[in-house]
Amino acid sequence: FSLKELHGIFPWLVESIFGSLDGIIVGWNLRCLQGRTNPNEYSVALDFLDPSGPMMKLVYKLQAEEYRYDFPVSYLPGPVKASIQEQVLPECSLYHNKVQFPSSGGLGLNLALNPFEYYMFYFAISLITQRNSPVTHHVSPSNSAYFILVDTYLKCFLPTEGSVLPPPSSNPGGAIPSPTPRSPAVPFSSYGMHHTSLLKRHIAHQPSVNADPASQEIWRSETLLQLEVLHYRLSISSKHHGSPAQSSYQALHAYQESFKPTEEHVLVVRLLVKHLHAFSNSLKPEPLSPSAHSHTASPLEEFKRVVIPRFVQEKLYIFLQHCFGHWPLDASFRAVLEMWLSYLQPWRYAPEKPAQSTEPLPRSVSEKWAAFIQENLLMYTKLFVGFLNRALRTDLVSPKNALMVFRVAKVFAQPNLAEMILKGEQLFLEPELVIPHRQHRLLMSPTLGGSFLSSRSPAVTDASFKVKSHVYSLEGQDFQYKQMFGAEVRNLVLKLAQLICQAQQTAKSISDHSAETMASQSFFSWFRFTTSEVNGSYTGNDLDEMGQDSIKKTDEYLEKALEYLCQIFKLSEAQLTQMMMKCGTAQDENGKKQLPDCIASENGLILTPLGRYQIINGLRRFELQYQGDTELQPIRSYENAALVRLLFRLSSMLNARFADQMEVLCSRDDFVGRLCRYHLTNPQLLQKIRYSPVLRDRTSQNLGPRISLRFLASYRTLISLLMIYFLASWFYVGPVGCTFIILIGYFLYAVIMTFFFEGWKPHEH
């Protein structure tokens, strides 16, 4: 096709692949396309959209002619859209010289994008656009075609080895025509307007094919990265009338929007973080001679040097803060947690291999990472405090929640990491230095407009000032820093350790309860109510469904997490012992179940805030039991409702007919009297009714000796009777014989229970 025809169909083709911006057109639905369920479509889509595939060749073909395509500003993320509509230039140089007035009769502002930018804009925004696409099977985000394409583009345009492959030229040896005249753009004001953007230098002013290929490769890398950072959505903009040292936190609140990332969204951002660590760590060692450095360093190497602090750090910090504060308190937070932990450990993606050791000792964090830790101090300290506050509100008995606490504790317990974080805090807390205003402004605004090569900050040797610059640029000059190793956070860690101990005891209690329940399933217990059935006092946990293996895992995770927390914060054995004693102050007579934390008053027990937390999260509970007449308690789920009502009428008739005879039998002092008293009376209920007028109104009229037939309405009793009759018929025993056997067996059971509870008296045998 001719370029004119390709130019006409390009926007339609992009929309057909990635879907429309309003979400009505689904497109190829790359986020749900997986090789396991649709192998043919999956492989075709990946081949077609590959960096060297037909679609990208079309992009480069149109790129050579400097075509422009309009992208509506209204579909950009909220903060960026608000900034542009207020005629304030976003800090991201991606938007420089691209915003245009609407054409005659048009509505809204547009971005005039070249083909590569237009393609990548749609690719990036398709992740955060909600679409109504029917999904008939479970979709694993990390196996989707979209996730694989993100990984492929990152490896191609941000390579850890070699350089970016140059785009294929459709006119070898020729020159790319000059760009067409641009329509006037909206007048913007920004800190970085006077800087020359590398992006503008290589896109707004297209170089010839004979230009330096190393410089030409960088604009694609920068464009891809800025669009990947667009996934953070919480972009930051600065106003011309704002403070020169305006913090990201303040700017965030100036342009905030209601936005909840999805788990798929977080996984893609984590993929970007991991790749950028590998990309940055592939930087070649600097030459000893500064002059040699200035002549040998390529644009790609310079890009690796500043890629994380310039493009990622600020927006990722805000993105993580948003997730920590708004993500539901459930196991899905694991995706956010792993993204955070991936950023905190750049050494995991370093090219050097760890030394082989015969002992599986944890790898110590090298001192060369001290600068990274200090320049990302808030990522380690403030977000750790945020995680503590989340952990204190979650159910640590759940294996998935216990695993998250274990993962964080294990990462921060790596040898030498806590010491380097403490050193960073000490540098921040050093007395302020008197700094000239212009230098202060430059260092307090690390993400100035323009590209990374436009203005490099002078080297700052003062490590303390670097840490202060990092903290104040993200949180503002008025930020009250909370020390990770201070007394306040240490108290939070002690509270978490106490909850870990309580969760371990709760898990053990659930395990013991399950074992006791299995052991109590004897044959004769099928004919009587058990305590848990009648009272309904036991409330289950997800451990009941997952079994003993999960209980064991929970205990292991919590035990190791507690051990790591003791290493990080130097908790002594005396503190742990005192904490363990506090955990066991409210045990019942069996020493297994604990009451919620409460204080005694003249009006009875009053729940403390800790006690309310324990009840809400199922860590502790009051033993609630049915206190009234067992004959009048609600019909249970394991009972036949019709039989309950029928047997109640029958037992009421028998009790009215034989009340005097039962009274005489229960008044005897011999074995028969004890047998009747045990099975026909309820002295505990009489004792409760004596002191409770409420119970007196809710019990039946006959509180003396009486017959109760309700146990026959239990499904387990009915199944047992059917099994006995079936076995009897197998041995040719008739119904009369079966009934006789059942009555004899129940009589023996009653005698045994009488001896067990009433005591054995040989002279009355």
Give a short synopsis of this structure.
The protein has 765 residues and is mainly alpha-helical. The chain has helices at residues 3-18, 39-49, 54-63, 78-85, 115-128, 145-157, 198-203, 213-229, 248-254, 263-281, 290-296, 299-326, 334-344, 370-375, 377-391, 399-412, 417-428, 437-444, 463-475, 487-519, 531-535, 542-546, 548-569, 573-583, 609-616, 641-657, 659-666, 671-680, 683-691, 693-697, 715-730, 735-758; strands spanning 69-72, 99-100, 110-113, 598-601, 604-607. Among the domains are: 640-693 and 703-713, no CATH class; 716-764, no CATH class.
Polypeptide structure, described:
- Residues 172-214, 231-246, 251-255, 434-461, 522-545, 586-592 and 760-765 have low confidence and may be disordered.
- Among the domains are: 640-693 and 703-713, no CATH class; 716-764, no CATH class.
- It contains 32 helices and 5 strands.
- A 3-stranded antiparallel sheet has the order 1-3-2. Strands 4-5 form a two-stranded antiparallel ribbon.
- Strand 4 and strand 5 (604-607) form a beta hairpin.
- Helix content is 53%, strand content 2%.
- With 765 residues, the chain is mainly α.
- The protein has helices at residues 3-18, 39-49, 54-63, 78-85, 115-128, 145-157, 198-203, 213-229, 248-254, 263-281, 290-296, 299-326, 334-344, 370-375, 377-391, 399-412, 417-428, 437-444, 463-475, 487-519, 531-535, 542-546, 548-569, 573-583, 609-616, 641-657, 659-666, 671-680, 683-691, 693-697, 715-730, 735-758, and strands spanning 69-72, 99-100, 110-113, 598-601, 604-607.
